[in-house]
C-alpha cells in the first residue's frame, strides 16, 4: 500500500504494538474532515468502535507523530469554542486526506432500497458504500474484500465493477458473457449518488458495499475492504 506509506510511523513502537489498524487511521481522518468544528476522543471512539485506551493512543499518534491533528490555540470567540469540541485537521492532515480521497472520493451511507437484490440477508445490515477509483485490476472474485470486511467485525462486503456502461460482480471467468450484471435501478442509483458528489464515474471504478450490525461497523467494513485495492 504505497499510498499509505506515510502512515507507517504510526505503527512503530519499541514496546507494545498499537491496537488500532490502518482502517481506523483513515476513517478517523475522514471523520475529522467531516467535522471541521472539531471532534473529541470519546466521539471518535464511538465512531471507530474501539476502546478508550486505543482511542487515546490513536489521538496521541495522530497529533504527535504524524502531525495530522491539533487542538486550536486558546483564544476568544470561535477558536475557544472549537477547542472545547476537540481536535481538528492540520494542513498536513488535510493534504493527506485529500490524497486519499483521490482514490476513495465517496464513503457514505447507502440506501438499502436499491440494494436488496444484491445483498445477501438484506435486513438490518446498515449498508455503507464507497467508490474506489480505477481499482478493477486489483479485484479477483471479491472474496478478499469480503474477508477484510469481516476481519474488522463487519458482516461482509459486496464489490461491483463498472465498465463504462454496466456494473457487474467480480468473477474469475474470462468470458465477458459469464459476468453477472446488476439491475438498472441499482446502477442508476449509484450513478446519481456519484454525480451528486461531483465525482466522475469511470471505466474500471469499483463500488464496495459494506455491511454490519450497526452503521459504524458497516462503514469500517466498507473502508477496510477498499484498502485491499490499494
Can you tell me the CATH topology of the largest domain? Gyrase A, domain 2
User: Largest beta sheet, briefly?
Assistant: 5 strands, antiparallel
Number of strands: 7
Oligomer kind: single chain
Round the Cα radius of gyration to an integer and report it. Answer: 18 Å
- Strand fraction equals 5-15%
Q: From the coordinates shown, what is the CATH architecture of the largest domain?
A: 2-Layer Sandwich
Question: Percentage of helical residues?
Answer: 25-40%
Overall geometry: elongated
Spans where pLDDT lies below 50 across 5 or more residues:
74-83
Biggest sheet, strands in spatial order? Answer: 3-4-7-5-6
CATH H level, superfamily name of the largest domain: GAD-like domain
Order of helices and strands: HHHEHEHEEHEEHEH
Short overview:
40% of the residues lie in helices and 12% in strands. The protein is built from eight helices and seven strands.
Topology:
Layout: H1 22-34, H2 41-48, H3 52-65, E1 69-70, H4 78-85, E2 88-89, H5 91-103, E3 106-109, E4 128-132, H6 143-151, E5 156-162, E6 167-168, H7 184-196, E7 206-211, H8 215-227
Antiparallel strand pairs: 1-2, 3-4, 4-7, 5-6, 5-7
Helix pairs in contact: 1-5, 1-8, 2-3, 6-8
Structure description:
- The chain is an alpha+beta fold.
- The chain has two domains: 2-102, Arc Repressor Mutant, subunit A (Orthogonal Bundle); 104-227, Gyrase A, domain 2, CATH 3.30.1360.
- It has eight helices and seven strands; from the N terminus they run H-H-H-E-H-E-H-E-E-H-E-E-H-E-H.
- A five-stranded antiparallel beta sheet has the order 3-4-7-5-6, sandwiched between helices. The protein has a two-stranded antiparallel sheet with strand order 1-2.
- Strand 5 and strand 6 form a beta hairpin.
- The longest helix has 14 residues, at 52-65.
Amino acid at each position: 500500500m504505497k499510498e499509505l506509506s506515510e502512515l507507517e510511523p504510526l505503527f512503530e513502537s519499541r514496546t507494545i504494538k498499537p491496537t488500532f489498524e490502518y482502517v481506523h487511521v483513515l476513517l478517523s481522518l475522514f471523520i475529522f474532515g467531516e467535522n471541521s468544528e472539531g471532534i473529541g476522543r470519546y466521539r471518535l471512539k464511538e465512531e471507530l468502535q474501539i476502546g478508550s485506551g486505543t482511542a487515546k493512543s490513536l489521538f496521541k499518534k495522530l497529533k504527535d507523530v504524524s502531525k495530522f491533528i491539533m487542538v486550536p490555540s486558546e483564544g476568544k470567540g470561535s477558536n475557544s469554542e472549537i477547542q472545547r469540541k476537540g481536535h481538528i485537521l492540520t494542513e498536513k492532515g488535510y493534504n493527506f486526506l485529500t490524497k486519499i480521497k483521490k482514490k476513495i472520493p465517496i464513503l457514505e451511507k447507502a440506501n438499502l432500497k436499491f440494494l436488496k437484490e444484491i445483498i445477501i440477508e438484506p435486513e438490518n445490515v446498515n449498508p455503507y458504500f464507497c467508490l474506489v477509483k480505477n481499482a478493477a485490476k486489483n479485484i479477483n472474485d471479491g472474496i478478499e474484500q469480503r474477508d477484510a470486511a469481516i476481519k474488522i467485525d463487519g458482516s461482509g462486503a459486496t464489490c461491483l465493477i463498472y465498465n463504462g456502461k454496466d456494473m457487474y460482480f467480480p468473477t474469475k471467468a474470462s468470458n465477458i458473457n459469464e459476468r453477472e450484471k446488476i439491475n438498472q435501478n441499482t446502477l442508476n442509483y449509484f450513478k446519481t449518488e456519484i454525480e451528486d458528489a461531483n465525482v466522475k464515474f469511470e471505466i474500471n471504478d469499483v463500488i464496495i458495499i459494506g455491511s454490519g450490525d450497526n452503521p459504524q461497523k458497516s462503514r469500517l467494513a466498507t473502508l477496510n475492504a477498499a484498502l485491499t485495492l490499494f
